[in-house]
Amino acid sequence: MVSAKIYYDNDADLALLNDKTIVFLGFGNQGAAQAQNLRDSGIPNEAIIVANRPDSYAEDAKSRGFNVEYDFAKAAKAADVVFLLIPDQVQPRVFNEQFVPNLKDSTTIVIASGYNVFFKLLNFKPSQDVVMVAPRMIGSSVRSLYQKGKGFPCFVSAEQDGSGNALATALALSKGIGATKAGAIASSAKEETAMDLFAEQALWPNIIVLFREAFSVLKEAGCSDEALCYEMWMSKEPAEIFERAAEDGFITQLKHHSTVSQYGQLKGALQLDGSATRAHFKDILYNQVLNGKFCKEFSQIEADLEKQDATNPLEQLYAEHSKSELAQAEQRVRSRLQGLL
Length: 341
Ligand code: NDP
Fold this sequence. Notes:
By secondary structure, this protein is of the alpha/beta class. The protein has helices at residues 29-40, 56-63, 72-78, 91-99, 115-118, 139-147, 166-177, 189-220, 225-234, 237-248, 259-271, 275-290, 293-306, 313-321, 325-336; strands spanning 6-7, 22-25, 48-51, 67-69, 81-84, 108-111, 129-135, 154-161, 184-186. Helix content is 52%, strand content 11%. Helix 1 runs parallel beside helix 6, helix 8 packs antiparallel against helix 9 and helix 8 packs across helix 12 (275-290). The relative contact order is 0.10.
């Protein structure tokens, strides 16, 4: 049995952050939320610098009273702690080129996603601490739950312990942004990346395919587009089921359904042989995610886009998906039934 340690407020000491200059590289979803939470936890405003290019994100930070630095080299030189809160795909270029040459040997680098550290795309000095404080929530929830006095799920780890005190710093930062209130779960960049990419590349693609094929089978059996769209997702029933699963239990939530539904789901799931799915999932995990195949492919796409000699493959992928029966029907239904949505 693998059970993870969970850290609470009592395990963390905010005093470790005294007299430290804390730089937030990025003031987007996570940056804006975490910087505000940290300040509201008592870190003085003058100890916080938001490093951002001069644009609307910078203006937002300024309007909230933060000191904004456009010059990344200057921000890096001042940083005792730097939170990397810009999109994962731009982190290697921005951090390695503009921060790394200017950081102190003792700066703590904080990541909110394991991807770039697990795939070794960021450069660190051995003397630096590298810690992961990765909320499992979108930024607006990180902020609103903090304001309500609640915590939020978060993964924490020390990926490189240059100071010998990296985990304690990670916990202090977790407490500062409000993550240890509900319990921060000990994890690692590897675990976080494996689960994240697996969900994105194995679990959810299968769910998309299940819905797509179910739609076609029921349509062929005579069901209308309108009825299918509402029955399958527009009613928000799947969202409610997942909400109940989070609250009551993955299987226990079934008790909210009719007896016919409970019997059908419980019996049906037991009758399915999951061995082909398991083999497919293992293939994605080991031969696409953990071996770096996906990372290599995605880095190449980023490099091509950077050189501006490539079209964004996302557009092509969206275009392919828009051809399915489900997508075509949904488009027709949405244009007819706006009032019901
Ligand atoms: P955002 O997309 O919200 O980041 C926007 C910020 O990044 C802005 O400040 C923007 O400023 C800056 N930025 C974007 N491009 C560049 C660039 N080329 N150079 C410099 N700055 C840039 O990011 P998120 O908050 O979504 O993600 C940040 C980290 O948090 C990631 O590691 C992500 O995996 C992780 N995370 C995100 C979650 C989420 O809910 N979104 C949940 C948990 C973790 P400007 O454009 O002005 O430069």
